[in-house]
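RECORD TYPE: inverse folding
INPUT: structure tokens
STRUCTURE:
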């Protein structure tokens, strides 16, 4: 994204428009506990982390560029997320203070969402160019989690990368050992997505060449890492930044499980990511680490939108003999014919049916 700078007049206009909008709504605009007279000038910032009511804002102003400020947001603003560009004011008149208040949200060019507990679409990161969907041989991917992510990503018109991590744990492709079957299935999954035309990559945090290839691919982009807990999102981000998992001084992302050193004297498996946080890549580009998920239900979408989320199905939408074809066993079904011809994998069609059934139940 071009990092366009706004002049003071533009900043003032955006924040006064949002304040006026807040006054028209039900939300109170007067925020308790803020000494309005102590606020500094309006300036641009970037949200790098969001926890509970508080947000960490990185200053984009020349004199304090890169410094972090712990901020609250005005109550008239919509929910803000990591990656948002905002207008904020520092609080207090003493030098060296590091708190502030966010007064306006600048337009987003994109956002990655996931559903909340009520099935509503909620943003998790904004202004991103790429969603890196991480999976690994361990923990084994849940059911059709990757397809669900892809449906959401297609729906949001974002660019995915399917990343198979922990390749150092992969058995040889020729292995006949029954214990290796599950891991080899994960490798087949990656091939399936590559065959559909998605960007895919195999990496390992222990194989520097693979990380170099990933760094090159993500250079200049803002990428959010998503996926199951324990697949190595935070480890990958630390490795891409050239930081050791244990280096707290360098701001290493928390890595879970029994990683070296970390677990000594502590309960095992406690260091999993709890907040979505943005890190700068040396050179150019930003990486957003997000907490692992247990499951990814989809927010409410219609059957047609679901089908659109399976990219290779698109040429066949509307081509079945019957308008209300359910693509199960109907004669003249274009999708079943495509499966027969090898143009669509049967596993993807059954994944579609599975997700549709769940959507119908909700
Ligand atoms: N063998 C191997 N282990 C890895 C690799 N990458 C990460 N791990 C290990 O996998 C475990 C989980 O890594 P994390 O980076 O915390 O996983 P995460 O996806 O961030 O997990 P959440 O924060 O819970 O979502 C740790 O013990 C890592 O050391 C890899 O490439 N190979
Ligand atoms: Mg993590
Ligand atoms: Zn059909």
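DESIGNED SEQUENCE:
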């Amino acid at each position: 994204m071009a990092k366009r700078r706004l002049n003071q007049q533009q900043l003032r206009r955006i924040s006064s428009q949002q304040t006026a909008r807040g006054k028209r709504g039900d939300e109170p605009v007067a925020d308790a506990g803020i000494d309005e007279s102590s606020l500094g000038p309006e300036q641009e910032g970037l949200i790098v982390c969001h926890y509970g009511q508080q947000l960490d804002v990185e200053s984009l102003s020349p004199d304090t560029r890169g410094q972090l400020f712990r901020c609250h947001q005005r109550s008239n603003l919509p929910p803000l997320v990591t990656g948002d560009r905002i207008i904020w004011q520092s609080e207090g008149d003493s030098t060296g203070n590091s708190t502030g208040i966010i007064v306006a949200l600048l337009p987003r060019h994109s956002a990655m969402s996931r559903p909340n507990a009520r099935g509503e679409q909620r943003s998790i990161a904004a202004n991103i160019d790429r969603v890196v969907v991480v999976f690994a041989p361990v923990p084994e991917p849940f059911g059709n989690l990757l397809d669900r992510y892809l449906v959401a990503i297609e729906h949001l018109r974002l660019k995915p990368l399917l990343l198979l991590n922990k390749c150092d744990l992969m058995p040889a492709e020729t292995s006949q050992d029954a214990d290796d079957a599950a891991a080899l299935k994960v490798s087949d999954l990656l091939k399936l997505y590559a065959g559909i035309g998605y960007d895919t990559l195999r990496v390992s945090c222990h194989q520097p060449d693979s990380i170099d290839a990933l760094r090159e691919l993500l250079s200049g982009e803002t990428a959010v890492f998503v996926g199951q807990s324990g697949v190595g999102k935070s480890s990958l981000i630390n490795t891409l930044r050239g930081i050791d998992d244990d280096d707290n001084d360098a701001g290493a992302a928390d890595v879970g499980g029994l990683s070296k050193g970390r677990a000594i004297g502590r309960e095992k498996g406690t260091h999993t990511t709890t907040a979505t946080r943005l890190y700068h890549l040396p050179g150019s580009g930003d990486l957003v680490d997000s907490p692992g998920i247990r499951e990814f239900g989809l927010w409410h979408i219609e059957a047609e939108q679901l089908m659109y989320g399976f990219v290779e199905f698109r040429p066949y939408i509307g081509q079945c003999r019957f308008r209300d074809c359910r693509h199960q066993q109907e004669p003249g079904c274009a999708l079943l014919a495509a499966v027969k011809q090898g143009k669509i994998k049967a596993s993807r069609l059954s994944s579609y049916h599975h997700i549709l059934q769940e959507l119908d139940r909700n």
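NOTES: The pocket of magnesium ion (ligand 2) is lined by residues 233-234, 272-273, 289 (CB under 6 Å).
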